[in-house]
Amino acid sequence: MYTVVDTDTDAIDIRWLSFKSPVRSVIKCRDMVPIEVQHRCVVDGRAGYVVGAASIKLGCCPNFRKSLGLIRTTVHRMGAVYLETDRPGILQVNRMVQINFGGSIPSWMVNLAQLARMRAMKHLDRFFQQQRLSAQTFLPAPHLVPKAARSRCFLCQTSFGLLSVKTQCQKCGQVMCRSCVNVWSLHISGFDTKVTVCSACTLVPRETTEISPIDTCLDAVQDYYHRLNRRPNPPSPIVLSPHGREEAPILLTSPSYDSAGSSPDDLMTSFTLYPNQLKWT
């Protein structure tokens, strides 16, 4: 709705958010009006980046329960703190959520919603990959290996059949099957473009490049949040699970609200964020 501050180190935004209910016949849709603050800081000598939000009341955005059927959600406190650690290139991420959803929602459904929100932190892993790939150079079409010159996928060595679709990695130039490549939306030279990159070339920066300085990591985090706020309809990111791991050991309290929603519960978890990989603790 409004941008109050937008500088290199700070940002303050007032937003109105509405959330569609997956089961409208049982649970009504929600909305909220939070003010979100982003700030670069130093905590106990450690560089950090803080994102916090809390609900506010605005005359131009009243309660829409009667007109639109939306239950107003109150954010008492919500945010994340990114801090450098004693290990170079590693950020510690702490996140806290204290929300009153209003109305009456089963505690198990609240748990699922908050679990999904915490797991969304894994989107940072893909964002860091996009940042690394955007800084790379790619081969022009004439320098790619001709598709007709290969009868097998260069990566998995699967033979191409009559119905097989061949594709080319724009990083190494080799011919691959569709299972071994991903299409990335990258920002290169000021333009958004789609690039096909094989799994091996996607992972190469993780293993071969030097560890990014903490300031670079924090810049990426800041850019991540700024993109979320500045784009009216940000694309849904694809979650990549490092090394095929799907488990996420997150501890959540079991929220319970009365009909008036007057007892908010705290939901806290902590993460260890690597610039090359997001790990959960």
Automatic annotation (TrEMBL):
Gene3D superfamilies: 3.30.530.20, Zinc/RING finger domain, C3HC4 (zinc finger) (3.30.40.10). PROSITE patterns: ZF_FYVE. It comes from Aphanomyces euteiches. InterPro entries: Rab4/Rab5_effector, START-like_dom_sf, Znf_FYVE, Znf_FYVE-rel, Znf_FYVE_PHD, Znf_RING/FYVE/PHD. Residues 147-201 form the FYVE-type domain. This is FYVE-type domain-containing protein. Pfam families: FYVE. Coiled coil: none annotated. Keywords: Metal-binding, Zinc, Zinc-finger.
